[in-house]
Amino acid sequence: MRKSITLFFLVLFSITIHSQAPAKPEKLGLVLSGGAAKGLAHIGVLKVLEEEGIEPQFITGTSMGSIIGGLYAIGYSAADLEKVAHDVPWLEYFDDEVSRNAQPIEAKEQSERYQFSFPVVDGKIQFPKGFIQGAKMSMLLSQLTLPIHQIENFDDFFIPFRCVATDLVTGEGYVFDKGFLPDAMVSSSCIPTVFEPRVVDGKTLIDGMFVRNLPVEDCIKMGATKTIAIDVGAPLATLDELTSFVGVLGQTTSFGMVKSTEEQQKKADVLIMPELKNMGSLDFNNVDTLIARGEKAARKMLPQIRALKKELNLRNQSPTKRARKFSIPSELNITSIDFEGGENSDIRTLRRLIKIKPPEIVTQKKLTEKLMGVYASGFFTYVDYRLLPEGDGYKLLVRTRESSNVYLKFGGFYDTNVNAAILINTSFKNLLLKGSNLSIDMRISETPGIFFDYLIHTNSRPNVGLRINGKWNFYPGDYYENTNLANGFNLQHAMDQIGLYSGISTHSSIWLGWGTEIFVQKEVFSIKEFESVNTTQNYLFAKYSRDKLNRKYFSTSGYKIGLNGKYILGGKLKNRVEEVDNQSTAENYYAQLEYKHVFPLSEKASLHWFNQAGFSQLRQSNYINLFYLGNTIATQDRFVDFVGFDYMDQLANQYAFTGLKLQLEPSLGYFVSFLASYGAFELEPFELVQEGQVFSKPGQKENMAGVGIEFGMLVRQFGPLSLTTEYDIFNNEFNTNLKLGYAF
Fold it and tell me: pTM (2 decimals)?
């Protein structure tokens, strides 16, 4: 009996102890959906949560939600994120274009010429899996996450974090809980066909929106007992909203994503859905509006948020105070450099390009510039970095992906004067010699041409190398008398040049050498086209260029200096019409100077000051060896653009002018410009063959002035579009010119 009573009290005591055991603590999770630019609305919600003293114990995110959520998890406050949202030019990261000032001078000459570029591997064209490699985005995220580069486990962040990507092969979700945070963010945000799929741990990954755009279940798996979910994704469109095949296609690809999101929404305890119906996925210019709408949606849900806080018995947190401990150092002590992804020969190239000799202290900005310079070299299709603590500084780990040695490129261009043209290019790197570049262009048009350029040099600055180039170029020739078109010609120019080339700095180069060329003039207004003038000559030349313009077209800052000189060693000008002795061109010479400076006035306005001068000394002036004032031809030095003149409007032996252009950008990528130019020219008496006869034309020495207005667009991938109307003040003449695409 005594044993039974004792056993009874032991069982009762055990039940009492267990009934008094503390319940499992409640933990709050925060879930951030994808939505591209609309994901900036998450920042507005975070601002309200901070005001309420609420800090989550777990965070999950997809796509843009992985970027905002990841940064918040490592220590950014809502105020920090708002500053990032304003400071980062997001749309610039939706391409692989490198800042022009980061490109070496040789690359600037070849850039902005082609709309499409494809690598050739083993004789086969490799079509891209995405239009954007994503190096710029990776480098941005590496910079923003610098203080935690050494942290592999996402549970060790200030707030444990997970983000979701999609396995392109299996279609299943891939949850990042460890690794390099920028890799996880980029993978989760990798919009298919837009960005190249990301390969991590042997998995080929794309945007996580295809499996869980709102990853509530992943937050619950982390240990969250209650969740606040922010959904900025777009619902299915109504029938009235499906007005195009693009909309129908988008709708059909959204079915699975919307169904998944609806299932995840049911698992959330508080669901916040900002009103973003009229906002687009690329509306990164509406930062304030997006954040405000997120804030408004969160305030609307404050009763539910406060009830959840009370239910969880959460104490007031101070995320802002905690986040102030998070900072990105302004200076970095680089104690060593390591490389990942390149062969031994590429590592040697990298060491020359990166221009950091440890131990060396560099600023964050300077480090980014140096790495962008490596990317701009063209030797690599992908470059990013990771900084790992080492002693009293950092080991810099540079990660690269080598570019193909052969590329096939295509360009298209239309000009009112030369009509439409297609450019086909084949480029070869490291052909015959390491560090060499061979570029061969073929222009298909009414005025065809073939161009080649072979450059051998080292990638250090300054450098000395060898440059060989040549061309066989056709272009139209016009002759005006009293502003009326009097005759037309087909002009041909064949040329070969070889000389010493030096890339003095990233922005400057000089080229000294010898060349030989042939000019041919064929009359086309006569009954039968025939060769009327032929010039064959060899010469010495010198070219200097310094280019710091931020863009080739519609530049908004920087300057450009160009010097070009040619001295004829020997040659003959042959007149095919009359039986006369050939005229010697020996000791003729040309010199040209160009200076352009662009002064930024505001974010939407800039003032361009441009100046040009040219001088020639000719034994015998002929139509074929003069300067042509009017519009430029990209491949011919003696064609000079002057406001007010049409193509080849004025011939000249000497000229000089100055001008101003006020460029306004009322909307991103759209331009309105007002132009004015004033100068003088001198034309000595010259010979012209027309209608089978040689005519001696009188000289001129006059002033020139013109004004104009230009409407332009800068379209990514396609290039510039411009419509210009100009007025020649002294001759009372208007002209209009339309240009589409990159000039070549």
Answer: 0.80
